[in-house]
Amino acid sequence: MENKNAKFWQKKGKQKEPKPTGGGRRSHIPFRLNFLFFIIFGLFIALIVQLGYLQIVNGENITKQLKEFSVVKVSGSSPRGVIYDATGKPLVENQADPAITFTRGNKMTGADLRSLAEKLNELIDLPIPDKLKDEKLGKRDKIDFWLADEDNFQKAYKRLSKDDKAEIAKDSSKEYNLVVAKVKDDEIQFDDKTLQATAIFTTMNSATALNTVYIKNRDVTDEELAVVAERSADLPGISTGTDWSRKYTEENGSIRSILGTVSTTGLQKEDAEAYLAKGYARNDRVGTSYLEKQYEDVLQGTKSQSEITLDRNGNISSQKQVFDGEKGDNLILTINSDFQKKVEEIVKRNYQILIDNGKAAVSPGVYAVAMDPNTGGVLAMVGYAHEKDSKDLQEHALGTITSSFVPGSVVKAGTLAAGWQSGALNGNETMYDQPLYIKGTPVKASIYNKQGEANRDLDARKALEISSNSYMVQVVLKMMGLNYSKDMEIMSVNKQGPLYNELRNAMAEFGLGAKTGIDLPNEASGIQTPVRSLDPVEDGGKILDISFGQFDTYTPMQLAQYVSTIANGGKKIQPHVVSGIYGNDAEGNLGSLVKKIEPTVTGTVDLTPDQMAIIQGGFYDAVHGNDAFTTGTKLKSAKMDLAAKTGTAETSAYGVTTINSNIVAYGPVENPQVAISVVLPFLSGEDQHINSDIAKEIMDAYYDTFMAGQ
Fold first, then answer.
1. pLDDT per residue over 351-386, tens digit each?
2. Would you call 652 a catalytic residue per the annotation?
């Protein structure tokens, strides 16, 4: 058999080996196992090497990544910069208030918030005055709190109709609002304790994930701080900290309104998008008006930082502050609070005289501005608002930039400038002061020469001294290419547009009819009636009225810029109330200068030195002249040498004929340091010339404050 098998395999080309027998049999299993063990051993070695690499080489980075996953940084409040007066007295400070805060976790539900609110409600007192219950807690707030209890939600859910459920089946996002509609009024009639819990819940519910809100930041007691800190483990997201509020000092006086306000509940809707684009959070408090808003980027501090540790469910397990934040930069104003108070007293006392004697019954208020004609720095801005037939006054310093009035003759320098610039007026040209009778318009005459009883020749300088309306009207006639003759006709209204522009452009070079550019928002530009809106027949003479300040309206701040431009020889300087931005020292007090607000010249009056000298001479003569009709002689006895221009405008209010009694002045004449405007609108008479009394007293107060003893 063996030989046959051998032969068979030989035929196939192969030799079949005989199978081993007994102890000589070989097995292939050990080799395969060894090979498998070798592979597994190699994989273990590779894994150990990789773990070693991760632990030794990249361990720090891995630890950092794990920490970043479980620890989140959130921002908190920080103190704003302080606002000081020109002498360094604080006008707006910060007050640190202990606070109880809440930072919302990633996965907190309404039920979580309600439970937390009820726990916190047992630990703190958050009284809600009766008058605020309905305002602070609306019906929806109460419903949301009630529905945050799952049993209550199910109770309301069972009231849904088949149609409601069908609608939810189509759009599940409608479910909650449909359930809200099923809550009954008697189910949200809460007692005071539940209302307090609702208030806490509502505040918490307003926070987005990982954002912080203040639960209580006023009148927090030491006991409340202690008990909240002690129970922090049971109050996820609740922490103690510090909030900052603005404190306005007694040095404010009537400039309190220009300091502005700061929001108490986060970004305002109208400004939210702009602030969010700058990196603000919705619950950040920002300046909402005037200086606080204008200098928001300066006053806003660097936010404090807290580290929040999240558990595996995304809930807050601990919270600690790691950076206290940095106080914002500070502002020093150009306004001296001592001088400001003196001006306030002067203006208020004199205006009270007019109220008491019935001259200001329909007057809306009184305004005065003092500024440095060389720098544009506002030294004082005072205003008081007055209700018709009242004897009470309300602070209204903002009226100096937001309210405009017919100015009267104070603006006649602008008329002369228009005449010179157009070529219609030649130097100190002489014209005949007389009543002017022109078809289509009432007689145009100077106040002292209504009937022609004081007709005479005047030059431009004299016309300013005694305030000749006739002279100014004749300047405009010359700009039309006309010389006066009785009963003459002037061009029609539809051809007067270019002449209006010439007059208004000349006025604007001094600062009239355009915003001054003061560093406060909401400044008015005055009122200039468009020519196209004028009546072609009735309003033909309005162009002549502009010449003596009887048509357009200007703000007290514009009038101060106007007289400053005359005082400094023709440079229109932008007013400003901030003199510089300052940092903080190591203790957080006023530090070194960061930025000085330099004088900004926004234009120059297009006049020759000789022409400007005529204007300045006329203003000087208005105080020092000896003519019977010299208008500003009350200022001659002032403590420094002054130049001025008075103005009376015919007006009406509540159907009563009234006047606006105004004055502008500057001094000392040889080296002007202060320029002022005083506006007394809608008085029933001017026989006392209170405007000049106020101007003189303000100038004397300036002398006493800044110049006495020099």
1. 999 999 999 999 999 999 999 999 999 999 999 999
2. no
